[in-house]
Write a structure and sequence with these properties.
Growth Hormone, Chain: A; 423 residues; 2 domains
């Protein structure tokens, strides 16, 4: 059974908030680069360098902004950062030089990374642990549906191809965040999880949590599939295969529709950290197979054979993507302390920013320069990260259990008479 609409209550309101701004994001993603290059007059190198710097700063900003959600409450912080993100998108309308573009990008990426952490903390505060991965799957399906609708609006702007059309698409994204903030206000307020810092404990405890850092690193490696989809595969199809150019759009539609229709069902396989680790391991295997199929698509064959191979590769890839998402969400939530979900989600989510930052250059260099060997190297990297996730999660789980036991002992020692066998 295909499930798309989340259950009533907080999950449905969260999904509506995601849907609202993802429609605007879809238009933004389609139009933004062409607007900055053709209308503003920035060079590809300027756009790329600004985005790299911006996502690097955003990755760092996500942790303290997530910590803010812990201390001040995730709903209020999410609303504030949603409005700030809309304002950041609005600032793009006034970009006229590289300097102002760089400043606007840095504001945008910081707000986006902080908003992602606050939203995850809000989800953790509103939804019981056993339903978080399922709810996150609903949100992912909703986001993909919204992006598809927004991309259609962006396509209209591209077809009109005027400054006013591009500005309208960007303004649509900015306004969509304001509507999303209004939707978030319909949710119940979640109390701040952190009231004071325990003596001797660092303010940002996640920065000293080495097991969680390793898990986050492996997740970041797996997230390299994102620039693979958006940057490398379109270039590969056009430059290295005999497949028609419209296959780029066809594979994007296939990916989006698959996530919308099947992500929740795939997430139903994940119920705890063990099943989550298996899902990520299987995702690594499927990503390797997909990379091998993409490499074969460049063989000297007809356009239709190349197209068929690309479709097979895309189907295997999206199945790996959905397994990865399901396992990754369970791991990210399950290993984070309940009172520090914001900062931990900010750290875990920084992998997305880092993948966006380093992925395009790394993957284009390996794959478009090396060809088949490059595909196999990337596939082996996915396999290695997916296989290593299980041991890393078990290490993090043991560390979390040890920390919990240590905290219990310290609490007992602070109570008069606690821990003594007799008078």
């Amino acid at each position: 059974m295909i499930r798309i609409i989340p259950p009533q209550g907080s999950p449905r309101v969260l999904a509506l908030a995601q849907l609202t701004n993802s429609v605007g994001d879809g238009a933004y993603y389609v139009c933004s680069v062409l607007y900055f290059s053709r209308i503003v007059g920035l060079s590809p190198a300027q756009i790329g360098s600004a985005l790299t710097i911006g996502w690097a700063i955003g990755a760092v900003a996500g942790v303290p902004l997530g910590h803010l959600a812990d201390r001040r409450g995730p709903r209020g912080t999410a609303v504030l950062l949603t409005v700030a993100t809309g304002a950041a998108v609005g600032s793009f309308l006034f970009v006229r030089s590289f300097t102002t573009f760089l400043l606007a990008v840095c504001l945008y990426t910081c707000c986006q990374c902080g908003l992602a952490a606050a939203r995850q903390a809000l989800l953790a505060g509103l939804v019981e642990p056993e339903r978080r991965t399922e709810t996150r799957a609903y949100l992912q399906s909703t986001v993909n549906a919204g992006l598809a609708v927004g991309a259609a609006f962006g396509g209209i702007a591209l077809q009109i191809d005027t400054k006013e059309a591009y500005l309208a698409a960007l303004a649509m994204d900015g306004v969509s965040f304001l509507f999303s903030a209004l939707v978030l206000l319909r949710l119940s307020a979640v109390p701040a999880a952190v009231t004071e810092t325990v003596k001797g404990e660092p303010r940002l405890a996640v920065l000293r949590d080495r097991p969680y850092a390793l898990v986050s690193l492996l997740n970041m490696v797996m997230l390299l599939y994102m620039p693979l989809l958006s940057v490398v595969i379109p270039l590969w199809i056009v430059q290295r295969t005999e497949a028609p150019g419209w296959m780029v759009s066809a594979l994007l539609v296939l990916n989006t529709a698959s996530v919308v229709l099947f992500q929740v069902r795939v997430a139903g396989r994940v119920s705890d950290l063990d099943s989550a680790s298996r899902a990520v391991r299987h995702a690594g295997i499927l990503m390797l197979v997909a990379c091998a199929c993409f490499a074969v698509s460049a063989a000297d064959t007809s356009a239709w054979v190349a197209g068929a191979i690309l479709i097979v590769a895309a189907c295997v890839q999206v199945m790996g993507e959905m397994l990865l998402g399901s396992g990754s969400w369970e791991i990210g939530f399950g290993l984070a302390p309940p009172d520090k979900q914001g900062q931990y989600q900010g750290f875990y989510g920084s992998g997305t920013a880092v993948a966006r930052m380093v992925g395009p250059l790394l993957l284009t260099t390996l794959i478009l320069t090396w060809g088949t060997p490059g595909w196999l190297v990337i596939g082996a990297l996915f396999l290695a990260a997916g296989t290593a996730m299980g041991p890393a999660v078990r290490w993090a789980g043991r560390a979390r259990a040890a920390d919990g036991a240590s905290s219990s002992v310290e609490s007992a020692e602070q109570v008069p008479g606690a821990g003594r066998a007799g008078p």
